């Protein structure tokens, strides 16, 4: 049975225009999608001591994601306010809350070692713990998102076996060049997701491309995370890179048919809306 543990970020994606919020975050989403695809899946991270932190844990348990090593820390859970324009997500601002306060202990690393693959992300605040995670799991994938240049990506990529980058605005040749350049820095495989243009990947056997597939579009939230989960499980099963890409693109299309990533939306009361709008105003 395939297995995956996602370590790092979580949030509540708050759709202010709809007065709805959904569980989210790259690491958390990947754990859920892996479970839905039949893997033994776990999420290891920090949630707040408020009702929103408990809500995230409840959603994960409903999705058969193991949360045994999660920590509830004193403080508020993180949030990200988004607007939806023609189904595309537009982020307005965010607060990580307690989610970047994860400090891995020996028991955590021993638990990570029981999974065939670990996954983490740029927004998890684990830069100085990636080497430990990789050593424990044996294989580490990492989502560099679309703004990796704002981080110390040169150091991060040396700890990674499979690197994911989001670059929907690059041409095909530019995406090829990026993938080749990043793979030269250490990863066994580099994947570039290109939104509606599909995805491409590079490994020792060469470059592979996969166009996007038609889908019943509802919301793009979490589509990239759905791609990552399906790709990783196919890769773990030993499929060729072209098949991994195909499965990733196919599942990303399925995710685009769900609201808020993987669902579980709940109503946001007017008091919370006003609090979040005030916080956004303070952020400028």
Strand content: 25-35%
Number of strands: 15
Count of all domains: 1
Largest sheet: 8 strands, mixed
Per CATH, the superfamily is Ribokinase
Instruction: State the order of secondary-structure elements, H for helix, E for strand.
Output: EEEHEEHEEEHEHEHEHEEEHHEH
Can you describe this structure?
- This protein is an alpha/beta fold.
- It has a single domain (3-283), classed as UDP-N-acetylmuramoyl-L-alanine:D-glutamate ligase.
- It is built from nine helices and 15 strands.
- The chain has helices at 26-36, 51-62, 106-112, 130-137, 153-156, 172-183, 223-236, 241-255, 270-283; strands at residues 3-7, 11-15, 20-24, 40-44, 46-48, 71-73, 77-85, 88-97, 118-121, 140-143, 162-166, 189-193, 199-203, 206-210, 266-267.
- The strands form three sheets. It has an eight-stranded mixed sheet, sandwiched between helices.
- β5, α2 and β6 form a beta-alpha-beta unit.
- The protein is globular, with a radius of gyration of 18 Å.
- The model has no long low-confidence stretch (mean pLDDT 95).
């Amino acid at each position: 049975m395939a297995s995956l543990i996602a370590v790092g970020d979580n949030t509540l994606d708050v759709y202010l225009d709809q007065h709805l919020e959904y569980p989210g975050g790259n690491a958390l989403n990947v754990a859920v999608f892996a479970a839905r695809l039949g893997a033994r899946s776990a999420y290891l991270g920090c949630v707040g001591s408020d009702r929103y932190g408990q809500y995230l844990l409840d959603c994960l348990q409903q999705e058969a994601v193991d949360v045994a090593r999660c920590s509830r820390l004193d403080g508020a859970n993180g949030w990200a306010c988004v607007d939806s324009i023609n189904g595309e997500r537009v982020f307005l601002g965010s607060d990580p809350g307690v989610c970047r306060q994860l400090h891995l202990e020996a028991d955590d690393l021993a638990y990570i070692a029981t999974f065939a693959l670990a996954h983490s992300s740029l927004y998890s605040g684990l830069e100085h713990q990636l080497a430990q995670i990789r050593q424990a799991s044996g294989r580490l994938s990492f989502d560099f998102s679309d703004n990796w240049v704002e981080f110390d990506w040169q150091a991060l990529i040396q700890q990674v076996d499979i690197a994911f980058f989001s670059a929907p605005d690059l041409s095909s040749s530019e995406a090829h060049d990026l993938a080749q350049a990043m793979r030269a820095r250490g990863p066994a495989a580099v994947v570039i997701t290109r939104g509606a243009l599909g995805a491409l990947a590079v490994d020792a056997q060469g470059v592979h491309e996969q166009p996007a597939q038609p889908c019943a579009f509802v919301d793009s939230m979490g589509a990239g995370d759905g791609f990552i989960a399906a790709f990783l499980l196919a890769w773990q099963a030993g499929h060729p890179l072209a098949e991994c890409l195909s499965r990733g693109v196919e599942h990303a299309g399925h995710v685009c048919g769900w609201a808020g990533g993987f669902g579980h939306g709940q109503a946001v009361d007017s008091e919370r809306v006003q609090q979040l709008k005030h916080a956004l105003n303070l952020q400028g």
